């Protein structure tokens, strides 16, 4: 009895190992992106930047709507002081002239005094004009701040809509691919994707903490900046939700959840497309090739749109603070977006490579089992041509190419190439 049990256990172990070996690439399509594209980069980031949510790293300097008017009037007053000093000097020079001085000298001195008096009067008129336009300058400054605030909200709403569209397309195509293989696998995978998307959305990461702190804390401050936003909030006094500092986290979480759900189904689709066929046929291999290309493009589109959304939401706070501080914080905003773009490219590469490898293994099996005469020229349809290969590579690199770090790298390369060309 023990021999039978031992044999049965060994058989089960062997079958399990065979199954793992058979579907190793499919497992890599799911596990690889999670490990390489999510856990590893975020673990490094969390170790380097253990930030706490809702804790401001820096103190934000919000613009004063009266700052421009005050600066302009102060500058005009300084100019007036110089004109008055010049007038005093010219008047003193005229007074020092002796009564018997030459008429031409007295005439020149009086002309100089009159010119200085004219300049002083013009300076006083400029100050009075600036004082009268103080309210208008304040309104213009407020309008600029309000415009920047509304523009950021509209841009993020537009990018969010695009994210929902691309995610829906990915869910439909990826779900159809999985459902055709196994309806049970589809429903189980969808359930796991829902759980995974929810867990990752709620999991604290250095990116989420820094990004939400960077945005939410500043929006809290901006909402409190009544000096700038009083006219806007007065117009929307019945719309409490107009102050989005509390709503923005929910919106970001919803977008993150939608994107991750689509990505989870996409990973499952890649796993299905990498799975070996018992007897691959030309039609099935061509269909798998087309589906692989479509899934690469759609997955890249999700990650590219997510990177663009990060760029929009990170640029949002920069329009609410004074320009010098915005310039100082822009590298941080770009670094957060670049982190997301790079990890997206890593995840897509980790998902697509095993799927393409599994498909190519079946292509080789098909060509070995199919006589060349029977296959004929149709075998060429199973090769990735240069255009298709370049398109797939660019799609995989899309999230990284969208991030600000690539723009900086491109600028450096162009500078070096231009410098060599000029030499």
UniProtKB/TrEMBL annotation:
Keywords for the protein's UniProt record, in alphabetical order: Coiled coil, Membrane, Transmembrane, Transmembrane helix
UniProt feature coiled coil, ranges: 73-133
KW Ribosomal protein (keyword) present: no
Membrane-spanning segments: 20-40, 156-178, 185-201, 250-274, 295-314, 340-360, 381-401
Protein name as it appears in the record: Uncharacterized protein
Organism: Bradyrhizobium huanghuaihaiense
């Amino acid at each position: 009895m023990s021999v039978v049990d031992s044999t049965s256990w060994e058989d089960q172990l062997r079958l399990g190992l065979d199954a793992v070996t058979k579907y190793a690439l499919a497992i890599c399509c799911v596990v690889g992106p999670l490990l390489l594209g999510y856990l590893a980069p975020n673990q490094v980031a969390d170790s380097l930047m253990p930030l706490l949510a809702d804790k401001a790293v820096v103190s934000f300097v919000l613009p004063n709507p009266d700052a421009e008017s005050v600066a302009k009037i102060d500058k005009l007053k300084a100019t007036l002081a110089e004109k008055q000093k010049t007038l005093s000097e010219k008047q003193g020079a005229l007074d020092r002239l002796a009564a018997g001085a030459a008429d031409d000298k007295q005439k020149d001195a009086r002309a100089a005094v009159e010119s200085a008096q004219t300049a002083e009067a013009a300076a006083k008129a400029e100050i009075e004009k600036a004082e009268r336009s103080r309210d208008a300058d304040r309104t213009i400054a407020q309008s600029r701040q309000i415009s920047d605030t509304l523009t950021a909200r509209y841009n993020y709403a537009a990018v969010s809509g695009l994210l929902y569209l691309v995610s829906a397309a990915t869910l439909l195509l990826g779900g159809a691919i999985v459902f055709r293989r196994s309806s049970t696998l589809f429903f189980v995978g969808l359930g796991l994707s829902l759980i995974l998307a929810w867990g990752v959305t709620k999991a604290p990461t250095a990116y989420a903490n820094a990004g939400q702190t960077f945005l939410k804390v500043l929006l809290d401050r901006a909402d409190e900046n009544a000096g700038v936003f009083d006219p806007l909030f007065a117009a929307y006094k019945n719309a409490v939700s107009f102050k989005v500092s509390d709503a923005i986290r929910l919106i970001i979480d919803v977008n993150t959840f939608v994107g991750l759900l689509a990505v989870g189904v996409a990973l499952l689709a890649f796993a299905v497309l990498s799975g070996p066929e018992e007897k691959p046929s030309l039609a099935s291999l061509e269909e798998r090739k087309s589906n692989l290309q479509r899934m690469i493009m759609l997955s890249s589109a999700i990650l590219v749109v997510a990177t663009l959304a990060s760029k929009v939401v990170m640029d949002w706070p920069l329009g609410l603070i004074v320009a010098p501080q915005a310039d100082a914080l822009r590298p941080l905003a770009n670094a957060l977006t670049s982190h997301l773009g790079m990890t997206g490219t890593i995840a897509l590469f980790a998902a697509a490579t095993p799927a393409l490898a599994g498909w190519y293994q079946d292509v080789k099996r098909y060509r070995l089992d199919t006589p060349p005469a029977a296959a004929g020229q149709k075998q060429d349809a199973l090769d990735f041509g240069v255009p298709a290969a370049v398109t797939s590579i660019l799609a995989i690199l899309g999230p990284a190419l969208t991030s600000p770090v690539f723009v900086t790298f491109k600028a450096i390369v162009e500078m070096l190439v231009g410098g060599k060309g000029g030499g």
